Amino acid sequence: MDFLERYVGWMKDRAPDLGDLRYAVDCSNGMASLLAREMFPGAELLNAAPDGRFPAHSPNPLDPAARGQISAAVRDGGLDCGVIFDGDADRAMFVDERGEFVQPDFLIPVVARSFGEKGKVIHDVRTSRGAIETLREDGCEPVMVPVGHAFAKPALRETGAFCGGELAGHYYFRDFHGCDSGVFAAMRILGEIAAAKRRGETFSRMMSPICSRYANSGEMNFKVGDKDAAIGRVLEAAKGFGPEISRSEIDGIRVEFPDGWINVRKSNTEPYLRLIAEFRESGTLAWRTAILEAAVNAR
Questions:
Q1: Which candidate, 60, 65, 64, 1, places its Cα nearest to that of 28?
Q2: Would you identify the CATH topology of the domain 3-102+196-202?
Q3: How far is CA 122 from the centre of its chain?
Q4: Which residues partner with 265 through β-bridges?
Q5: Fold observed for domain 215-297
Q6: Which residues, in sequence order, are CB contacts of 187 under 8 Å at separation 6+?
Q7: 9 falls in which pLDDT band (50, 70, 90)?
Q8: pTM for the whole structure
Q9: Which tens digit of pLDDT belongs to each residue from 144-168?
Q10: In CATH, what class is 106-176?
Q11: Cβ-count burial 29-41 (b if 16+ within 10 Å, e if not)
């Protein structure tokens, strides 16, 4: 059986109207190279030859250096957006028409909107409050889950959610057997960008109501000897940030404050303590992040 042909056919049957959208796709010399020409006709393709040595750049699009080519291609070509896949193509990430990176959790509401459904949508503990608020405003029910596909896939099925996503760029779909797919996610998001273009909106303008609500630190990683002690110091330092509204301990600890939140957790896959913070004002985020970093690194 020609599984690749069946896979591409399934995707094409669900492909949105991209109209006159002008975009680039960086395959990162990975698995997306096998089907990019079929799935994204008319796109400017970068690094579209499979090569496990990854000669062009790191196969991890969360690495800013890996996004240099796609950002330059969008800016230099005057394109509407760019897509970059990781090595095994289960993650898709985007840059806007300015070549600026769009944090993947901001796109969870965009993925949900592409289905025109009202229902449950999963997101991980690192997801922006701006994305969560947008989901609620769109009539969806956000469901917080631990980080990682080992948790997200069962959660999607158990909660009956129709889609979901993570900060790392994984997006999950009921219609894709409850699994993640970078290609399917890219198609859904490209369709929404194309629809925005037909309304006269750029990608960045479409995203502004979601990503401009709060200032976000992005995920910070620290190598520390005693992670539990460091978590204790972080939580003690955060007591000065205002009254605690709520707390989740499903994956590390996420503490909600009136104007933002923090999450501190041990990595499931690497020897790191991970920390992320988000607050309404960028100045507030800056000084509170400095306090948290000092707490992590205290001896």
A1: 60
A2: Alpha-D-Glucose-1,6-Bisphosphate; Chain A, domain 3 (3.40.120)
A3: 12
A4: 274
A5: TATA-Binding Protein (3.30.310)
A6: 11, 14, 15, 16, 39
A7: very high
A8: 0.95
A9: 999 998 999 999 999 999 999 999 9
A10: alpha beta
A11: bbbbbbbbeebbe
